[in-house]
Amino acid sequence: NENFVGHQVLRISAANEAQVQKVKELEDLEHLQLDFWRDPVRPGIPIDVRVPFTSIQSVKVFLESHGINYEIMIEDIQTLLDEEQKQMSAFQAR
Amino acid sequence: ALSTKTFNYATYHTLDEIYEFMDLLVTENPQLVSKIQIGNTFEGRPIYVLKFSTGGTNRPAIWIDTGIHSREWVTQASGVWFAKKITEDYGQDAAFTAILDNMDIFLEIVTNPDGFAYTHKTNRMWRKTRSRTQGSLCVGVDPNRNWDAGFGLAGASSNPCSDTYHGKFANSEVEVKSIVDFVTNHGNIKAFISIHSYSQLLLYPYGYTSEPAPDKEELDQLAKSAVTALTSLYGTKYKYGSIIDTIYQASGSTVDWTYSQGIKYSFTFELRDTGLRGFLLPASQIIPTAEETWLALLTIMDHTFKHPY
Fold this sequence. Notes:
heterodimer, B: 309 residues
């Protein structure tokens, strides 16, 4: 199973169209391997993006340097996946 | 599970467990439920649709599918719950019984079996099919960009490594082509509802163009009624509107194609995540999600039944 230790999901709040476009620029940087759970659409609609551990620092620096607000929606994906697996195994065991 | 009564609807299940559930449901309700295989996936897995029918031949029908994007686990889990709900409510709930006495329901619970198996086995975040693209190391096509409606226009990617890769040509994905052939051969489907997650939206055509759909007024009114019914249960807030107005331009999408085939009541749901879990919605929210969504589905099915066309 693919490992998502350290992957975070950021919820980005783009305040205006320019910031939406800035986030879209991130989308095109394939080396960051970003996984947009909710795409950049328009100001006011949350943008959710899964960021691999190796890209987190650069993504956060990018957002902060452009004054784009974000919060950490999921601290560590793997923790939730482990929880999900545990719940399923508990049921199957029962 | 020994029966659909002891089946646990409040946990996520593997592909095999869902396929076993389908067989149990058919065995327990032979007069009402049958299982149709509409094709095989790229990796050779059977693609099953449950048919709920009380008789007649080629009756007007309602199509519901879940799980076209494999990581959206709450949708397949809701599809399992819908299947059981249909067998429980027929003969009990007057409004629903009237619908099923006159229309058939087709329910495809796992619309992307290869992708779903892959989320259990290898990558829980997988969204696309598992087909191979010649000349690329990347795998899979977004099955919700592969339909022959605005195919390849803006709102999908031509990059095989993208999560919204539209594929080499429309219906290139056998998981899509199987539905296209089924719907075309059936010829009497009156409502088509494709269920995704997340972000609480009820969407209708178009996604590939900002042109309003000819039936926009009626679709908007019906979406409003359906969302009102959904929200009445647990207060889950939904937005509704056309795909392009409500979220973004998306070309080659399922409901744009079904609408272009004359299926007026074509809708896409984006089910809850009311919290901050995204695709990793806790299993404890499966049943509440299914229950509230069912109220919206009933609204759409009832309207379809009462407004034959």
